Amino acid sequence: MSRPLSDQEKRKQISVRGLAGVENVTELKKNFNRHLHFTLVKDRNVATPRDYYFALAHTVRDHLVGRWIRTQQHYYEKDPKVLLGTPGMGMEEADDWLRYGNPWEKARPEFTLPVHFYGHVEHTSQGAKWVDTQVVLAMPYDTPVPGYRNNVVNTMRLWSAKAPNDFNLKDFNVGGYIQAVLDRNLAENISRVLYPNDNFFEGKELRLKQEYFVVAATLQDIIRRFKSSKFGCRDPVRTNFDAFPDKVAIQLNDTHPSLAIPELMRILVDLERMDWDKAWDVTVRTCAYTNHTVLPEALERWPVHLLETLLPRHLQIIYEINQRFLNRVAATFPGDVDRLRRMSLVEEGAVKRINMAHLCIAGSHAVNGVARIHSEILKKTIFKDFYELEPHKFQNKTNGITPRRWLVLCNPGLAEVIAERIGEDFISDLDQLRKLLSFVDDEAFIRDVAKVKQENKLKFAAYLEREYKVHINPNSLFDIQVKRIHEYKRQLLNCLHVITLYNRIKREPSKFFVPRTVMIGGKAAPGYHMAKMIIRLITAIGDVVNHDPTVGDRLRVIFLENYRVSLAEKVIPAADLSEQISTAGTEASGTGNMKFMLNGALTIGTMDGANVEMAEEAGEENFFIFGMRVEDVDKLDQRGYNAQEYYDRIPELRQVIEQLSSGFFSPKQPDLFKDIVNMLMHHDRFKVFADYEDYIKCQEKVSALYKNPREWTRMVIRNIATSGKFSSDRTIAQYAREIWGVEPSRQRLPAPDEAI
User: Fold this and answer.
1) Which of 610, 527, 486 lies closest to 202, judged by CA?
2) Which candidate, 128, 210, 552, 653, has a CA 20 to 30 Å from the CA of 256?
3) By residue range, what is the domain housing residue 547?
4) Tens digit of pLDDT for each residue in 82-131?
5) Residue 292 falls in the annotated catalytic set
6) Catalytic residue (choose from 63, 393, 404, 595)
7) Is the peptide bond between 573 and the residue preceding it cis, with omega within 30 degrees of 0?
8) Which residues carry this modification: N6-(pyridoxal phosphate)lysine (predicted)?
9) What's this model's pTM, rounded to 2 decimal places?
10) Are 150 and 86 in contact (CB under 8 A)?
11) Into how many domains does the chain fold?
């Protein structure tokens, strides 16, 4: 027998049911059973949890299909501007890790398109012709993307590489059967695996193939849609491209789709027979570029010899774009030869390369960073020359997060407590959270917010015990850093604090310490040795700290394995403290920081990325800010950062480094962490020691406030109330109005069973 539901649980269930918009529960159950039986060919005796998930997914997809078709009909009838936004088409390559299939997607083999590689260029009286190419087919898979309570269902289209049926068919006839099959696999490898590197460019031919494959397929698809005007019609109706930028927006999300610029030029000039200047005007007005990193090793710079082999026509077009661009620069800054060298799309050197960021800026009408400080850094440093040439292009669009997933779905308890005070409209208008400021001194609200947090912590503690067999103190401060493992994100600074705290407990075992559970999670790129060593260090610290009886439950260190969205949905609502501690000037924006703020965690952070705007919204007095500002980092660079100075001056830091060097945390392999120590002492680009002292002091302030639960929760409420700016709704509305030239619509379409 299941226990009866409390009134509060009933209320939550009702609100969630209302949110899902399920009109008929009996019908839903019937469809679920039908899919289990007919789609999955299972009954309840043999069905697995995955089978139940798939049956439910198919049932929900059925629920969306009517809205999906009606949305597409509406777009064809109204003929609005199309982008990767509202109305939207997402772009991504499909991968073979979908071992069990994907119940949400619909294959569209009838819209398969050819993508060309290799070959050579012939210049004829009719213009350039790219000939003798190898063809790979791009097959689309569509996934419905439902809007919130508006009956709109947009499409995310993914592409899968397929070999053509006649692929090397001649080899079959001369007995080369095996080789022909292997060659098919080679063609289909294009969409088989995604490169996992983050913030690091690796100039591999397969990666370049992937980037062009997705771009070429998507652009053909965009142009087919532009030329057709009736729903379901494939015959071209529009042949004039003058209106193309009024109907299509292409947002280049970092430089990975930068080949869209030369590809669109190739289509317009070579295939549509448009003259160069007109084609360039159409291309620039259509494309816009978002930059996501200032780290030099992350910027894409493709070797010319690779482009020459794989995409010979595109290289010619890039050379032409570069020549015309440099002519403009020379006319604006006569005699400034060094400026021409710095701004060229072509980098000379031992290996000649194409700078893809420069291509994106030259070929776009708008360029933006993803937080105010990041956009300013772009203008002052890596893109300074381009800003001086075309200041009107440069904008800022601070990132945002969706409150539907990152509050209502992952933290229903908090969403309910908020809705009881200010209603439910905040879900689609997050600025309404400001109304909560009038409840900062409301004892019942303070109590409710604290209670929800404690429930989330208990739930996550139970999850950790179940999954990791780790027992933690749910009354401890949950101190959390979850993000990709990278030196600039400074998980090592967190580790130094943990060891310092451990040493303090060991030094004064009878003293009261605010109990902490430090959780660090994130993935390391497969080839990133230092990132893997950082993970190894975190687990080694945990092995020592968690088994030291002197420490007890005052300090626990846990590495959260396989960090992913589903784990984030569990850990973020349970967090007390959010660690956002990158070196100032290195984190473009961050979005995890926003998720923690919205879910009632306080932030300890540097003035970097979106932290700056979060502190501005909440008030610096409601943030734990520490460390160097961008200006301080610049001054330190000019003076020369010397880790030894800090090591010599700060005894607690020296003790920690000596423990790492001596094998205290790796007794069986005393030199295990020598690479980490060597990096920190001699070539630390991210200046961990420079912020150590201030970070430790700031963590003491965190512990002091945590001892006062009422004041802690009041600060939490101020943070939640001022997080409205960081809704992705605001971000997308700004892109729409200020870059794409469309007015975002809140229009609700009629449901499939409603009359139009």
Assistant:
1) 527
2) 128
3) 412-716+724-738
4) 658 344 443 533 344 578 899 999 999 999 999 999 999 999 999 999 99
5) yes
6) 595
7) no
8) 595
9) 0.93
10) no
11) 2
